[in-house]
Amino acid sequence: MHPRPPPIAPPATLEGSTRFRTLTGPARHVERVLLGALTLVGVGWALEVQHWVGVAVFKEQYLGLFLALVLAGVFVATRAHPRASGARVPWYDWLLATGGLAVGLYVALRYPTVAYTLGAITPDKVVLGALAILLVLEATRRLCGWALVWVALVCLGYAKFATLLPEPLAAKSAGWARLAVYLYLDANGLFGIALTVAASVVVAFVLFGQALSAVGGDRFLTDLALVAMGRYRGGPAKVAVVSSTLFGTVSGSAVSNVVIDGALTIPMMKRAGYPPHLAAAIEAVASNGGQIMPPVMGAAAFLIAEFLGLSYGEVALAAAIPAFSTTWRCSSRSTWRRPSGACQGCPPPSFPGLAASSGWAGRSWCRSASSSTRSWSPRGSPARRDWLRSP
Q1: Which string of DSSP letters, residue by residue, matches 19-63?
Q2: C-alpha–C-alpha distance, residues 7 and 161, integer Å
Q3: Alpha carbon distance 264, 247 (integer Å)
Q4: In this model, does residue 96 exceed pLDDT 70?
Q5: Are 19 and 79 a contacting pair, CB within 8 Å?
Q6: Which of 38, 184, 189, 285 is within CB 3.0–4.6 Å of 69 for a Cys-Cys bond?
């Protein structure tokens, strides 16, 4: 008998050891206030609360408040480098968080006045614009690494020194002051399509996915995959593929897909005889395919819709074909690559057990479907989900 594999750590544990802080005391309260305020602001804008109360709010004002909370939250919650302390916030990060609040709240509070003088270059705009650019670059470095930062720096350098390049790359250059004000306040700069999509469209879909997870929808999707595919040949791998695909419809994130589904499916495949590297590969590939599965896809799908001027429904419809193709191909390949000891499927759980283990979402769905789907479980099969977790 093989020893039970160690449990997979949740996302906070995996990432917190290298990137995110684990705070306590007043710093923890500040972090929770910032992130909680960011959630409330996003919910309020998605529900159009400003129209209910009869207050006129520029979109840029909302984006300024959103950017202020994001920058402050990033500098409080993340470390400058992996060797930095994860238990406290150093003084320079408090200064950076304060600067993030300043550059965002300036737009949130003064945009109705600034909107009429966007072309005027004044000292306050130049200073805040330069500070905003530096803070966004530093936040990007902490969250995404240096690659995207270097791309942005190359673009900035081109805007400044384009006149020094040969044809056909030569173009009219702009001064540093004009660049700072343009990138800070113009609709094609920091408050352009990328931030607009993240602060409006993406927030609404993320809230939808979190609401579904809160009522047990994620567990229900995994159990549904067990019922549908667990009994077939190479069943554990098929369960991993289908559950990752189903969870991808509400998460839009390959990383969260792997962490949530992989905690169940990878040990299950290993117990069925799959080598550890093959079990991890199947889950990783299936989770990446789930990222493009409609209706909730990765953030790039929303950017595609905005840049091409298409509705999100058209983008989702176009993504459906490659998403289902990826799922089918991954499922079939996992069957062909199965080890000799993983030929038999695992007994699927019955629908009463599925409803009991999947929260409100599973119980609601199973009340309407149990009468027509009880025959899916083989006669006399007492299998439950607990069987899959046993060594």
Answers
A1: TB----THHHHHHHHHHHHHHHHHHHHHTTHHHHTT----HHHHH
A2: 53
A3: 13
A4: yes
A5: yes
A6: 38
Cα separation of 83 and 262, whole Å? Answer: 28
- Check pLDDT > 60 for residue 388: no
The two tokens of residue 8 are 């997979």
Query: What does pLDDT average to over the chain?
Result: 79
Which residue, 34, 96, 17, 16, is CA-closest to 70? 34
SS3 156: helix
What is residue 199's DSSP assignment? I
Give the span between the Cα atoms of 372 and 227, in whole angstroms: 14
Which amino acid is present at 189? G
Q: Quick: pLDDT tens for 207-228.
A: 766 676 677 766 676 677 667 6
Contact between 362 and 354 (Cβ < 8 Å): yes
Distance in angstroms (rounded) separating the CA atoms of residues 156 and 176 = 9
pLDDT mean over 40-46: 90
HSE-up (13 A, CA, CB side) for residue 116: 3
